[in-house]
Write a structure and sequence with these properties.
Keywords: Signal. This is FAS1 domain-containing protein. Helix content is 30%, strand content 22%. The chain is α+β, with helices and mostly antiparallel strands. The chain has one domain: FAS1 domain. It has a seven-stranded mixed sheet with strand order 3-2-1-7-6-5-4. Strand 4 and strand 5 form a beta hairpin. The radius of gyration is 15 Å and the shape is globular. Bound molecules: 2-acetamido-2-deoxy-beta-D-glucopyranose (2 copies).
Length: 157
């Protein structure tokens, strides 16, 4: 399956912070963490991406940063049920990265995705605009503890 990122025009950055300590069991930590992240995504109206997350949410590792194509883009994708996790892993970076972390990376930094055969090149254009494989980041930090849509949240186009 092709990396949809490359075909989509805009993506947003979602960070799934893991809940730390004091949780009754590891699975509760995973579910609680990803469930609240999914709620934030939903409030930000990434309905299709939320649906994909919920299909496999117990398999999503902690400390993941999601690169979310918007609903319009996802409506053109056909993702077989058994490839949902793979699709999400190609749109994830296995680290908690906020916009402030990303903007400090050297221009052209290549980062791994959660999928072993896929990397993403992060380009830093002028005016603090970040591109992931030439796809513009429009809404950084959609999920960040009570700090929705920090930075640019562009719905232009
Ligand atoms: C997630 O990140 C935190 C803080 O960096 C770290 O303490 C924790 O071990 C990480 N959890 C996993 C499952 O990698
Ligand atoms: C980063 O690299 C791209 C091309 O690879 C270039 O167009 C852009 O101006 C560079 N950004 C900065 C801030 O130098």
């Amino acid at each position: 399956m092709a990396l949809f990122l490359a075909a989509s025009l805009f993506i947003s950055l979602i960070v799934s912070a893991s809940s730390i300590a004091a949780a009754p069991s590891p699975s509760a930590v995973v579910n609680g963490g990803i469930a609240s992240t999914a709620q934030e995504m939903q409030r930000a109206r990434y309905f299709t991406f939320v649906m994909l997350i919920r299909m496999v949410q117990e398999k999503i590792p902690h400390n993941t940063t999601f690169l979310m194509p918007n609903d319009r883009m996802l409506s053109t994708a056909s993702i077989p049920e058994n490839q949902v996790l793979e699709f999400l892993s190609r749109h994830s970076i296995p680290a908690l990265l906020m916009f402030d972390d990303l903007i400090r990376l050297p221009n052209g930094t290549i980062v791994p995705t959660s999928h072993s055969s896929q990397t993403i090149t992060i380009t830093n254009m002028e005016n603090q605009k970040l591109y992931f494989n030439n796809v513009e980041l429009t809404s950084p930090d959609v999920c960040h503890v009570g700090n929705l849509f920090r930075g640019k949240a562009s719905n232009v186009h």
